[in-house]
Amino acid sequence: MATPITPAFPATRLRRLRRTASLRAMVTEVNLTPANLIWPVFVTEVEGAEGEIASMPGVERLTLDGVRRAAERAARLNIPAICIFPHSDQALRTEACERAWDPENIGNRAIRAVKETVPELAVMTDIALDPYNANGHDGLVVDGEILNDETVEALVKMALAQAEAGADILGPSDMMDGRIAALRGALEDAGHKDVAILSYAAKFASAFYGPFRDAVGASGRLVGDKKTYQVNPANRAEALRCVARDLSEGADMVMVKPGMPYLDICREVKDRFDAPTFAYQVSGEYAMLEGAIRNGWLSRDVMLESLLSFRRAGCDGVLSYFAPAVAEILA
Ligand code: PBG
User: Active site at which residues (predicted)?
Assistant: First the structure.
């Protein structure tokens, strides 16, 4: 798009249109509404684990009843979707990860709880083995190697169980190759043709996920790192190839993750593919901002400003732990 030519000062005084709130409103280019938000919530099956997460002040692990209340709150605030992250019993995490596709695992119970309480609220899930894996990885690990194709088979089972429980949107966050095609095919075959896939397409191997790993109880368990499957933060072209690949395999929507340090990728994904594009303002971004807000170093306005930046970068929506607080301000 061409930059419009403006005549020289004083014919052009860009401050003219900033003078009053009305004038500023008239020339506002992007907006943020609750419809742009997806609210990630943590649900625990472990007695005593509910409550605030130390590295994410203001964010709690919820019980199933807490998830029901969160669903009602989301609906009240016009947030269209909630995304469920399970905190499972550590003692039941195994190397084979079989609880990931157990219809009675805590994630699937939470999906059903939300759909029973607020049927119209969209429920999104996370597809990756880490919440149920003894070693904290998103895939099956054998002799120190994260297996790709065997993991995809496990993810398909996990996805079918989530679809069966009533999930509207599946969010594969595992970064295995070939998973989108495998999931799409299995969903179609099982009669879940309308279950959507929001692929974590450009997911970087980031240090900003630290607080999330505390929240789901994966910190200290992760053996090694996730660099053999998540994208190198230095790689823009590779991230775009991931998005192209996932769209070609049948992803309905794509995500860039983390968010704020990767706004360049968001813009480029939107411009190139013009598909529904989301970003994840991840736990570390939340912790930085909320920590500074709580210390009085930043005003709460940074919540709105940070989310608006995603809209400006071309995102249709954002997964953010600020979702309910921001929706309350916007109401
Ligand atoms: C794991 C998963 C992660 C997040 C969402 N799904 C962590 C990871 O990849 O280690 C991070 C979300 C956040 O930091 O808020 N499948």
Answer: 203, 257
The owner of tokens 């953010």 is 320
3-state class of 171 per DSSP?
A: coil
Q: What is the signed CA dihedral for 88, 94, 97, 98, rounded to 10 degrees?
A: -90
What's the pLDDT tens digit per position in 153-195? Answer: 999 999 999 999 999 999 999 999 999 999 999 999 999 999 9
Domains of the chain in start order, with CATH, are 33-330 (3.20.20.70)
The ligand 1 atom nearest the CA atom of 282 = 15
Residue with tokens 């594969």: 172
Res 1: pLDDT:
66
Write down the catalytic residue from 115, 203, 226, 270. Answer: 203
Q: Facing residues of 26 across strands?
A: none
Listing DSSP states for 244-309 in one string gives HHHHHTT-SEEEEESSGGGHHHHHHHHHHH-S-EEEEE-HHHHHHHHHHHHTTSS-THHHHHHHHH
Q: Is 203 a known active-site residue? A: yes
Ligand 1 centroid to residue 122 C-alpha, Å: 20
CB 50 within 8 A of CB 66: yes
With 0-12 CB in 10 A as exposed, 13-18 as middle and 19+ as buried, what is 48? Answer: exposed
Query: What number does the ligand 1 atom closest to the CA of 40 have?
Result: 15
